[in-house]
Amino acid sequence: MKAPLSPAQERLWLLQRLDPDDAAYTMYLVRRLRGALDTAALTRAFGQVVARHESLRTSFAEQDGVPWAMAEPHGASAPPVEWLPAAGEREAAELVAERVNAPFDLSEGVPLRIAVVRLAADDHVLCLTLHHIIADGTSLNLLLDELGECYGAAVEGRAPVLAKLGVRPSDYARWQRHRAERAAPYWLERLARPPVTELPFARARPSGTGAFHTVRVDAGLAGRVERLAGRHRATPFMVLTAAYQALLSRHSGQRDLLVGAVFAGRDRVELEPVVGYLAQTVVLRADLGGDPSFAELLTRTRADALAAMGRPGPPFERLDLPVDTLLPTMLVLHDRVSPPASFGGLEVSDFAAGYRQAKVGLLLEGAWDDDGGLVLTFCHDTGLLDRAEVELLAARFVRLLESAVDRPHEAVSDLRIWTDQDESAIRALASPRPAAREDARGVPELIEASAHGRPEAPAVLCGERTVTYGELWAWAGELAAALRGHGVREGDVVGVCLPRSIEAIVALLAVWRAGAAYLPLDPDDPPERHAPALETAGAARAVSRIGLPGDIQVIDPATPHPKAPQPKAPTWSRRRGRRPRHPVPRRRLTRSPPRAPRVVPRPSWSSTAPSPRACAGCARSTA
Fold first, then answer.
1. What are residue 394's phi and psi, to 5 degrees?
2. pTM value?
3. Where are the beta strands (DSSP E) in 17-173?
4. DSSP 564
5. Which of 96, 128, 381, 397 has its CA 20 to 30 Å from the CA of residue 253?
6. What is the mean pLDDT of residues 471-496?
7. Distance (Å, rounded) from C-alpha 531 to C-alpha 194?
């Protein structure tokens, strides 16, 4: 049977076409089965579940550039079960990790794989993997329950007792296509001019590789979360989302930010037993304007979530914005799930899947445990955040959550967020510091001293290019003069939008020499990321080789202003500790003026000249 895809399925299909090797949307069901396993009964159970659910018999074909869902007949057989021997748990874990991290090719049949790893005659690991386009999180729970029922029925020689299916995934997809058109105006207005949400500690570029850090909220705090939600006619999900929005705002200072969320999409009884991709990914826009109390923020988050829950997800393809702008981070709270009532006498337990994918930069998943507590898992992209940073974020989130539920009428900015480690660091920063040496010099002065003392020494290495201290100082002087010729004055902020290169180092040094502060911009970022940064910093000029948004005046680092006066080389006094005299009075270039951000590092080099710096990607250094 040929049927159209839902808008959400179309997006997943397109993402797989754009990056066939991406396994971020591979879903998995991994469980350990202890006891005497009847392999024939388990194979029969797989066949019954696959025959029952249309999505598990659906492949995808492209016709004239349009993807279609092609469901096989009801009597189609299940994919063959892969029976794998393992010498021990380590080998079993490797076999499972290999499968859950493997991508699917949606053009090659049903995206479903079934494997059973044999550790011993009475010890096996079930590994079921499938693409997100045919299932969601609720579907995995349904599959486990139905597999247990079908296996138990096969062992006991009876017919399985399963809920009646009244809706097919293809019917749901058609319905969603109609609803999406009606919901589009809401999302286009709600997400107009979206902010670029800043993740705490984020750096570099996403790698797609994920790592996980888990913390547990004890039953006492989890209970207080539920009671606070009840008093405000909200849900625990809304409380956690408001706390997460507050966490991000406290780190970035942003009052307008975006957090993605996932709703089950099963708001009708007939949808509850359906295996398929019914979940809806939405974007919640936090409003922390006016420094609200946490109770007020919860009220705002509740209204936003209720408005989003009643609609299909945003039409991302019509918003003309990068996905990482709209979904930089997400929060998902899973429903309470009970273990299967029966699995034919087998003991069912968890088994580490070894999943290593990251869908977004930072994903917070919550799941209730059997003791009434809440297990929070922070999945982070290792290219953006490292483990220590995520551990710190997790500890701060729990501290902020405690403060919010205990003092909900306190302003968000006053909620306690710092951990004991943070408070120790703050006390250390506040303690008296030894006075700086009178002869202490900043980076520009150290480089200047090297330019006069050993001008032929290599300063910067990049590939086959070498720039000496004399050349670096002269080049930076010419560019500094060009900046002043373009109107840069002491205390200004100048953007620097260059890839890692010799020119970038020259530009930073030139901005310092011009008496300004630099604002680093990543040339790989889209213009909508540059614009708010330049506006907030008050930068009217930038050193770059690409155009920048707005009325920013762009100066090419390789082409100094032809009419700009060239700076004279300052002379050093032989008397130790005396600063060089310049043709015109000026402040030390390493000291930021009162209205400019302090961006100059304080190196702790013991030598009188800095070591040569090597650009990223260079394999050699003279240091």
1. -65, -45
2. 0.72
3. 26-34, 58-63, 66-71, 81-85, 112-120, 123-131
4. S
5. 381
6. 91
7. 12
